[in-house]
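Structure tokens please, single chain.
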Amino acid sequence: MDGIEVPKYFLCPISLQIMKDPVTATTGITYDRESIEQWLLRCKNSSCPVTQQPLPPESDLTPNHTLRRLIQSWCTENASLGVDRIPTPKPSLDKSHFFKLIKQLQQPGSNIKALQELDFLAAKNERNRKFMVETGVPKALLLFIVNCFEEISVQGLAEALRVLVFIRIPLAEAKIFLQEYNDQIIKSLIWVLVCEFKPQVMVKSHAVLALKTMIQAASSGLLERLEPPFFEMITGVLKQTTTVSQQGMNAALHALLITCPWGRNRLMMVESGAVSALIELELGSPEKRTTELILGILFHLCCCADGRAEFLSHKGGLAVVTKRIMKVSPTADDRAVFILSLISKFVATNSVLEEMVEVGTVTKLCMMLQVDSTAPYLKEKARGILRSHTDEWRKFPCIDKTFHKVY
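Here you go.
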């Protein structure tokens, strides 16, 4: 199309491309349907891109059939010059279509076909995903997963989980579902993690992402009633990094972090081997957000005696936490220093203090006191650790004689 002059009114004001499905907004300006719908969905309090007049997300978009025919005619006339003809757009789906698919989803003979269509439509555009949420597709899919669990059937699970990730389960809807069906969906998603699928990584990652959302929406009462299999399965995910994506791994960590405030949960995490799994994961030098989540969980687990014992029993625990200080983010620094403070306060045996010297903990804490960017409260926490064991650490020849002066 190089060198061909396209009539300006054929171009969408947003994309600046020839319009395939021109629609006119209430402000009188015509846009390509996909472009203006994306604009309205992204900006909840948006205005018309051209006139700047208010244009609510639910604004009527009237098909401009006359302009579409003109564009199609022009494309046909210029086909020999490399212009592709714009096909006649299919009628836009409305909410009734998704209500129909929900009914089909509840029927054994047509549920797989309905899932496949939902999968296709969810991947197609944001408008479809918006309609799915508004018509109750997330609840229908969660019920489908629960039914699969109860019937021990994996047929359709991959599609159901993929659609849930596409449309993102609204927290408000997840809360209502948990109130109606208690913890059945959590048990169902945990069950999915032990099932065999192809492709394994994608399905299990989607299951963990859905599980994270449900845990976020769970009441404190439900979180207090979680059982050992929940923590065993999540810890299993942490130990098998090849079975989930990075996004899925972070979702698993987030789910654990949400459950940490309850002492009973922390004990079950420790018993499931979470401390060792977290340290091993961190030794792999993961991305920033993963490190922040890991250190956050380790801090909670080190608040209990069993957690501290497990942490110190791993030869890489103190070393990796020390190494992350001043290397990742202020959030990571906060959690790392608080972990070291707990170790220093409750289990500062001679061997532990010696290890803190060997892995550079003492040096790192001293460095924190000398860096202007360190938060004042963290400096005070680091200073407290150093003061607590000054006499012991002075005995080590590798410690600079002036280290005690920094505080």
